[in-house]
UniProtKB/TrEMBL annotation:
Protein's name according to its UniProt entry: Uncharacterized protein
Coiled-coil ranges (or none): 190-231
Organism: Lederbergia wuyishanensis
Transmembrane segments: 12-31, 150-170
Record keywords, A-Z: Coiled coil, Membrane, Transmembrane, Transmembrane helix
Length: 313
């Protein structure tokens, strides 16, 4: 989808650029410019000829437009229907150049050259000097603006049609290549998916077998753990029971020695001192504490083992 969008944008940009430059060139060729028309000389009498020159300005003002005539032409021999600046340029003998300046845009200037002899229109040379102006050498050379516009439209339409045809041809070729590539990719993907599916099925079967084995091993380990835990609890119960018995016997003998020492002068302090000295030498200070909690632990542990044996039974 993204590639098609990019391709569409690229095609539009290329078409727009080509159209812009084609229109620019066509406009330069066919859109109406200023037109200078040199007509045929008209004989008034045996020594007087009138040469009509028409200048139609369209785009912008015209300046420094020069027209060269054969023979010696003076400025007062040229008449204009609209006032404008006419200057004569010094040239070689038997050749005259006049310069026209200040021709405003969108106006029609009618110039008339009064000459003493017939001047061939093709012998007149127009020096444009950068002015966009079209030169016609007789009234017969004038072309209808409508025909020019139609010609411009036809050529522009042909260029559009050609561009659209070329772009469509390219897009169709590109589309065919993409369809072919997509078809190959889809077939490759389907084949790869089949192989992947088969591999997944095989992996799932292996995982199921492995999971079953793992579950059995876990059950076995759980039973072994429970058995070990039960053994440990029983051993702890046995050791605590023995320790409880030893503690009772130790307290009995300690109390017996204490009663004997109490019979001596200052026997109470001596009895405690002797018992502490013995405990310090044997490093058994912990036997002086309360051992009742060990007995409580024995009762709890015994109850746990009894309940565990019932559950296993």
């Amino acid at each position: 989808m993204r590639n098609r969008i990019v391709e569409g944008i690229l095609s539009a940009v290329i078409l727009g650029v080509i159209t812009f430059f084609s229109n620019l060139m066509l406009t330069d060729w066919f859109i109406e410019k200023s037109v200078l028309t040199i007509g045929d000389s008209v004989e008034i009498d045996n020594e007087t000829y009138l040469l009509p020159i028409t200048i139609n300005t369209f785009e912008k003002e015209i300046n420094n437009l020069r027209i060269g005539f054969p023979g010696d032409i003076k400025g007062n021999q040229i008449k204009a229907n609209i006032p404008l600046e006419i200057n004569k340029i010094e040239t070689e003998k038997n050749y005259s150049i006049i310069e026209l300046t200040g021709l405003s845009e969108l106006k029609s200037y009618q110039l008339t050259l009064i000459a003493k002899k017939y001047i061939e229109p093709n012998s007149i040379v127009v020096h444009k000097n950068g002015n966009k102006i079209k030169v016609n050498y007789s009234i017969n050379d004038l072309k209808s603006p409508i025909k020019e516009q139609i010609k411009f439209i036809v050529i522009n339409s042909l260029i559009y049609a050609g561009l659209i045809f070329l772009i469509s041809l390219y897009q169709e070729k590109r589309r065919s290549e993409l369809i072919k590539q997509n078809a190959e990719s889809i077939n490759s993907l389907i084949q790869g998916n089949k192989e992947s599916l088969n591999n997944l099925i095989e992996d799932r079967e292996r995982l199921q077998k492995s999971q079953e084995k793992t579950n059995k091993d876990l059950e076995k380990l759980d039973l072994e753990f429970k058995e070990i835990n039960s053994r440990h609890a029983k051993l702890r119960l046995l050791y605590n029971a023995k320790l409880n018995d030893y503690s009772k016997e130790l307290n009995f003998w300690r109390n017996t020695i204490r009663r004997i020492l109490y019979q001596l002068p200052d026997g109470k302090s001596k009895a405690e001192e002797v018992i502490k000295s013995v405990s310090s030498a044997l490093k058994t200070q912990q036997t002086h504490g309360n051992i009742q909690h060990d007995f409580e632990n024995l009762k709890i542990l015994s109850k746990y083992l009894s309940d565990n044996d019932k559950n296993e039974g």
